Structure formats: C-alpha cells, structure tokens
C-alpha cells in the first residue's frame, strides 16, 4: 500500500515537473523571448543536459571492478554512436546498443 | 479532416509506438507495479525520455524532490519550445491547455514545420487533433509494451541500457543541431566531477548545478566580449 502511494506521488510530481517546463514560457516569458540570457540557455542547455545524463547513466550501467573495467557498457555505447552516425535512425541505434549490452551481460562475454 | 491528420502524424506513429513499447517493457520488467501504471504515465506525464528516466528513478526509490528536479531539467528544452509558439496558440481557448500539455519534441517539430493557412481558428483545431493523435499513439505503445513485458517470459537483464542509448542518441542530435561541442563537453565534465565527488543520490542535481553555473559564466563572458560570439568556444 505504501508502494502504491509512492507511485501515485511519483507520477503526480513527474507530471507536474514535465507540465511546468511546457507551460512556463506561456506564463512568464511572453515579454522576454528576446532576452539574450533566455536565448543563450535555449541554445546551450539542452545539449549540456543530454551529455550530462548520458554520462551519469553510462557510468552506472558499467561494472568498474572487472578485469576490463567499464568495457561492458563502453562497447555498447560506442556501438550506439557508430550506428547513429552511420544511419541516423534513433530506434536502430538504441536497439543495437541495448541488444549488445544484454548479450554481454547475459552471455558473460566479458569475464568478470 | 481526421484522415489528413492521420496522414500528417503517420511518421510520429512509427516513432512513438516502438519507443512507447520500449518504455512499457522496461516498466513491467524492471518494476513490481501493475502494468496499467505504464499507460497511465503516458496519459498523465506524456514525455518519452522523461518516462524512461522515471523507470530508473522508481527502481531507485528516488526522493520526490530529486524526481522533480531530474524531470524538470531533462525536459528543460521544452521551456524554449513554447517561446516560438506563443503567437500560434494565442486565442485557442480551452484547447490551449491541452496544446501546451502535449508539446513533446515530435509534436513541436510537426506543429512548427507544417504548412498553415491564414484561418487561425481552423489551424488551432488541426493542431489540437495532431496533438491528440500523437498522444494516443504514445499511450497505445506504453500499454502494448507493458502487456508484452508482463506476459512474455524472457531474460530482460540489461534492457535498462535503452536509457543510456537514448541519451547518447539525443546528445548526438543536439550536437548536430548546434554544431558546437562546448555544451556537450561541459555536460560530460560536470557529470564526471559529480560522479567522483558526490554519492549517487546527489550526482544528478550536483552536475546540473555545475552545468548551470558554467553556462551563466559563459554568458557573462560572451556579453563582455560580444565580438567572440558565434566563434568557437575554448
């Protein structure tokens, strides 16, 4: 039961945070669309945040105490980059990297 | 009208169905919640990368403040979408709230790129239906994936890497759109710093603070030397 309440609270907070990012410009930015700071952040923030998230979650999916530390996640990550630069198809890139990572973990391809 | 809306949104269907299914499968294979919570999140939250991030936050039983900050920052790019639609949504009445709620990356790109007539109320009704169709595809994908993950037995170990792969793809797309590696390096370096000095529970927020400070310093520097704007950043 406590878990159900946590899930309900979680969804409410996540929905509020997501909606906030979409509604704030309509509430507050009406007069500031040309402000240079807004334009600066609009230009640079999204790329920085994506790189930040990719790095944090890449580090968390790797095992750093094996004989080849980090390779279990770095190889699939390199595959995602390569496939995406090659075909630029988001779903194909995500699928190939995820399948490679699952194979490495499940078949124990990199000896720990 | 619905037929032309369907044709317009067909590419979104092909993108949302598999990505929604990936979220649904992740949700039911990684978590112990009922399957219908996945489409419920598609209805109430409606954010692709956000919901996939939510799975790992739920698995870690993250605190609600961290959830708010992480979801807000992940979706912060939406702050800048609205800026270009202020005029287009003006006077849309009750539909406006839903148009704003449903402003995902894909809907935004469709609404800002499609051909428009001078008949603004008519175009706003079209915008509304496009947004609604897109969300239906997304929710259907979430439900299908959740049912699949809950009912088909397979070894899902490692499937959570889809989140990392998604962020890598989005980073490449952002970099290509921008043509400037500086923010990508700042983001990666801030994350590395946070990983080294902070416990896992505070790494996301810590890295976000570092990124914000660096971008503000860069802004101040550019304001002082406007001549260097547009040139490479060291």
Automatic annotation (TrEMBL), chain A:
Transmembrane regions: 6-29, 41-58, 64-83, 90-110
Coiled coil spans: none
Cross-referenced Pfam families: AzlD
Keyword presence, Membrane: yes
UniProt cross-references to InterPro entries, sorted A to Z: Brnchd-chn_aa_trnsp_AzlD
Alphabetical keyword list: Membrane, Transmembrane, Transmembrane helix
Keyword flag Cell wall biogenesis/degradation: no
Organism domain of life: Bacteria
Name listed for the protein in its UniProt record: AzlD domain-containing protein
UniProtKB/TrEMBL annotation, chain B:
Principal subcellular localisation of the protein: membrane
Domain of life of the organism encoding this protein: Bacteria
Alphabetical UniProt keywords: Cell membrane, Membrane, Transmembrane, Transmembrane helix, Transport
Entry's localization field: Cell membrane
Transmembrane domains' residue ranges: 12-29, 35-60, 67-89, 137-170, 203-219
Bilayer topology term: Multi-pass membrane protein
PANTHER family: INNER MEMBRANE PROTEIN YGAZ
The family this protein is said to belong to: Belongs to the AzlC family.
Official protein name in the record: AzlC family ABC transporter permease
UniProt source species: Marinobacter azerbaijanicus
């Amino acid at each position: 039961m406590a878990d159900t309440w946590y899930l309900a609270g979680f969804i409410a907070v996540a929905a509020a945070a997501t909606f906030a990012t979409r509604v704030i410009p309509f509430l507050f930015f009406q007069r500031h669309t040309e402000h240079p700071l807004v334009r600066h952040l609009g230009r640079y923030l999204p790329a920085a945040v994506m790189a930040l998230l990719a790095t944090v979650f890449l580090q968390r999916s790797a095992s750093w105490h094996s004989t080849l530390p980090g390779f279990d996640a770095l190889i699939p990550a390199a595959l995602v980059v390569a496939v995406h630069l090659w075909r630029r198809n988001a779903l194909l890139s995500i699928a190939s990297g995820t399948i490679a990572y699952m194979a490495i973990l499940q078949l124990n391809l990199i000896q720990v | 009208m619905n037929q032309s809306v369907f044709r317009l949104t067909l590419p979104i269907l092909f993108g949302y169905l598999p990505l929604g299914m990936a979220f649904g499968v992740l949700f039911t294979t990684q978590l112990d919640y009922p399957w219908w919570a996945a489409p419920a999140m598609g209805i109430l939250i409606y954010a692709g990368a956000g919901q996939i991030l939510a799975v790992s936050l739920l698995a870690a039983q993250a605190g609600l403040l961290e959830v708010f900050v992480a979801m807000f920052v992940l979706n912060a790019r939406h702050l800048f979408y609205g800026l270009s639609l202020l005029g287009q949504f003006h006077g849309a009445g009750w539909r406006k709230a839903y148009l704003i709620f449903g402003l995902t990356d894909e809907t935004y790109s469709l609404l800002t790129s499609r051909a428009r007539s001078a008949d603004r109320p008519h175009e706003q009704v079209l915008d509304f239906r496009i947004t609604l169709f897109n969300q239906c595809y997304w929710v259907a994908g979430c439900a299908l994936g959740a049912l699949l993950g809950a009912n088909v037995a397979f070894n899902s170990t490692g499937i959570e890497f889809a989140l990392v792969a998604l962020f890598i793809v989005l980073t490449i797309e952002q970099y290509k759109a921008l043509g400037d590696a500086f923010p990508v390096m700042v983001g990666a370096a801030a994350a590395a710093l946070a990983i080294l000095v902070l416990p896992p529970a505070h790494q996301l927020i810590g890295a976000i603070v570092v990124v914000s400070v660096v971008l503000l310093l860069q802004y101040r520097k550019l304001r002082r030397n406007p001549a260097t704007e547009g040139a490479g950043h060291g």
